[in-house]
Amino acid sequence: MKxxxxxxxxxxxxLKGFKTRERQLYTLATGGGKTAFFSFxxxxxxxxxxxxxxxxxxxxxxxxxxxxxxxxxxxxxxxxIASKKYLNHSAQVYVAMVETIHxxxxxxxxxxxxxxxxxxxxxxIGIFTKIFEHFPKAKVLGVTAxxxxxxxxxxxxxxxxxxxxxxxxxxxxxxxxxxLIQGYEIENLISDGNLVPEIVFSDTQINREELDIxxxxxxxxxxxxxxxxxxxxxxxxxxxxxxxxxxFTASTKDNISTxxxxxxxxxxxxRIFDSVNKEESGSRSELLKWYDNTPxxxxxxxxxxxxxxxxxxxxCVILSMSTASLAKYLQMIGRAGRSTTKIFKDxxxxxxxxxxxxxxxxxxxxxxxxxxxxxxxxxxPKKEAxxxxxxxxxxxxxxxxxxxxxxxxxxxxxxxxxSVSKKTVKVNELIYPNGEKIIKYCELYGKDKNFAVDIxxxxxxxxxxxxxxxxxxxxxxxxxGEFFKTMKRILDNEVxxxxxxxxxxxxxxxxxxxxxxxxYKYYETTN
Length: 527
What we know:
Rossmann fold, 3 domains
């Protein structure tokens, strides 16, 4: 097991940076191999210095994943988890649940020997800094796919009249990690075959300005997420039926509602997981085992599986909610971005019911994280925030948030009419069948040319599903000859690639005629 070339470049850059810096943050997209990156970095750090490393995480899955990866590259580690009361101190690497080690150190400051490097997995969560003070001489590396979290600081200022006013100021993660190392882009990981691209279906009628922000979470309040009740079910049936799907909702109440919607439609392969509906959720380990082993499973949750959850066979993500957080948006979608050899997967579906794509752009587009990492807002008086003030768009003066007309310049605030979400969404762009990708998959599993053309036909039928082409239109285009012209243009070259490949068997049928037969069978099963 060796690091990818981009991981080795990042390792070299990080270790070089530690010669002059105490803290750094490395960002790499979900699915790019963050665990492998910092595991190889740990090995190289210890090989070069013979020092100790502490790796912090916030979920048990991440602990197990890290320990297993370290073992594969020849590193022995000790896990610090609640069930393990004592350490053998037989390793130079400790992999710890953040709350567990925090409690142990509070009880016994000498619980761990000297630590020279702390690595923080999913550092955007912001719960790890309380550990740093126990190891003031240690270097710190944060690792995340989304370094866009805002940190809040409160200060008090003395006014001219001698009174005090509390101010609030927000900062990016540079306040903790000081320096940003930006890793491989998603588009490069897709080109290398480590990730797959998304096909986007989105509702563009959501008016997000109507949604209120929750002061505690800095995200939209769940009660304001006005996605139509049956959106998730209708769009799943329309575009993703039979595909392994994960659905993110705005609240635990929505989890139950969405679960019932699916059950009313006769689906048994659907479950929810949250901290409230425990009777429906069951245990986390049993649920994840079921999800991994069920090809068409539907998993509904509210922000539980945004991080620390790896299931490469997910084929569809449904965002049945609106979020104001770029980090949360990317983390949710990233669950389906990983490539896999367990199934043929050259893409995944993103069904966005909350206007998120319109706000943040496509998951796979390049991003410059520096403005988020080095962000620093002006101090805002807490009293004004509590009074719900705003700024006039006409003269930039501070006015009450409830004011329709500015008392200073007379500018009238634009009133937004509440919109109603559509029950269905539209596809933004398509990914067409690719014979070369199909051949690679068939070679891996010893499948023949007939099997390869079957996959090609499935992908072709998907195009009709995604574009919502009705049976009547297909019949009309068959009669006027347009169907044959279009499908020959899309499929002829891909079929030729398969026929010319080294796969076993022969494909001698008319692929267009066979596609028509399969297409009619699809329409028969959906009517």
